[in-house]
Amino acid sequence: MNFQIKTPWKKVIHVHPMDDFSLELIWEDDTKSRIGLNELIQKKQILWRLRYPRYFKQVTVDELGGICWPEGEDLSPNFLLHHSG
Fold first, then answer.
1. How many domains does the chain have?
2. 65, 2 in Cβ contact below 8 A?
3. Contact status, residue 28 vs residue 21, Cβ threshold 8 Å
4. Which of 11, 26, 55, 75 falls between 20 and 30 A from 3, CA-CA?
5. Is residue 5 part of a domain?
6. Model pTM above 0.85
7. Is residue 2 within 8 Å of 10, Cβ to Cβ?
């Protein structure tokens, strides 16, 4: 990943999937947060693949500081920042 891309938003630089469908995030300023996605995954039909733990764990950071999965599901850095704690 090229984290040198300058953006007006705060970017995720590392993501670690957890067994309870949550993610631990490390941001470019070295802060850490956690976001639970179970409710969102169950509610949004478009995210059906994420209901499978093996697929959920394939999450990566995209070049703009959001997160994504192999089949195109993604969450923006702004969404992650707003919904994580």
1. 1
2. no
3. no
4. 55
5. no
6. yes
7. no
